[in-house]
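Notebook B, p. 112. Complex prediction, attempt 2.
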Amino acid sequence: MSELAESGSPEKEAEATPKRPKRKQVFRLLSPVSGREGMVLGVLGAVVFFAVWEIGHHLTPADSQRFLPSPFQVISTMTTLIMEKNFLSDVGISAFRIFGSFFVACVVAIPLGILMGCFSRARALLNPVISGARYLPAASFVPLLLVWFGPTDTQKMALLFLGVIFFLVALILDNTEAVQKELIEAALTMGASRREIIIGVVGRAASPAIVDSMRNMIAVGYTYLVIAEIVAASDGIGAVMMRAGRFLKVDVIMSGILAIGVLGVLTDILFRVAAYYLFPWNRKRQG
Amino acid sequence: MSKSSTEPAIKIDGVSRHYLGGTFTAVDDVSLELDEGQVTAFVGPSGCGKTTVMRMVAGLEAPNSGEIRVYGNVVDAPGPERGMIFQAYTSFPWLTALQNVEYGMKILGVPSAERREKAERLLEEVHLTPAANKYPSELSGGMKQRVAIARTLAQNPRVLLMDEPFGALDAQVRWEMQEMMIELFEVEKKTVILVTHDIQESIYLADRIVFYTRSPGRIKQDIVLDFKKGQRFPKKEDLLLQPGYIDAERQMFAWMREEIQQVEAA
């Protein structure tokens, strides 16, 4: 099969076809996938997932089927929640908490990460504390934050902030240090000031990687959302799910999970589209 | 400005550089005087400190002892009057070729119309006008180095420092770039230091060759290529016909072999 795959020009392969039918190797290393095929495969993956879920629902004994509702039931429950229970305002509140806290985290982490990447003294001072803090489970801050802020939005956003900030700084530090040293040296020999180099060269060169780090870390932020909204919360997706859990309304819980998933996918797309238009110079060239 | 006409453009005076807390001597007591407009090649085996000497002239590294003066001023930091071209591609990926060439002038506060005009002229000098609005990711290695050369010339340096500028290019592109440099030396009249381990390249481009010994880096030989009679050859093959060329090349291969054998014996 490998001889076929590597046998020179396409014409030769075509000539060889009458004798032996050409077999396309599906999992060939480093072989590219076209945009169209990629989309088809993505949809296929989603269809398989929902199909397995649906089959699982039908294989469940009838009396416990309500613990594993079908995808269609979940979607219809979600529609009801949106139309009658004002679910979208809960989704909006959750989105506000995520984006608000993540924005603050970026405002802190981006300058800090870049400065630590540029100045080894700043790095030596801060890195031990910051990389150590990554090992603290954010959930363990819940009681402390409740004492400090009460059952407020601030408390929930502080938790989301703590969940991502240390990782975000560490990643941005890495992104900054990955900037090619010669770019900085070239700028120095052109007479650039330190300020110009930090913002205009290092920050600029690292920016696509930083946006990528942000995209990955906001996903981690989503994983803390339910923890933040489970305790002492009356609104938000997590609170809705928690209430539903008390009444064993699995379809509502699953609607919540689905809503978080959809929100997450949209966020990811938002970041990718933004990166595409912000960094036209960094677009991957396709063969 | 030079203090007097006899003052050398670059004066390297008893310069040493150590690493690893003083246990490794990369450059040991090097002294050199380079004249205005002279193209000097630093040649030697890998690890002979030739790049370190150049980086100290650039101000990117400081000597542990000794002093470097460029046009009379002691070097203590990098500056735009000493332009440097690196072996690695250093065009800023977020700027187009034209914007890259404008970058240095922008930092120095050159007005935008003047900047644009000069950048376009320099891109023409390095034969890159058709690619002016492309990003570096769309350019070949040779084209990226052309951008780097134009960008460095744009800051109007008196000294041009080239650190194995064509080391990453394939043989044909390297040859094209060498011939282009000969054109540029005629137009731009800079004092040039070229670090290279390509013996033929050094003879083709340089007026003078400083050959370094290996660890510690010292000057082994310092020769002016008299056989060229001050000429620069737009076509590389014309150099090969010059009486004396073969002798120079043979001599340098012999020096290189001596250095390599000494290391192997040690």
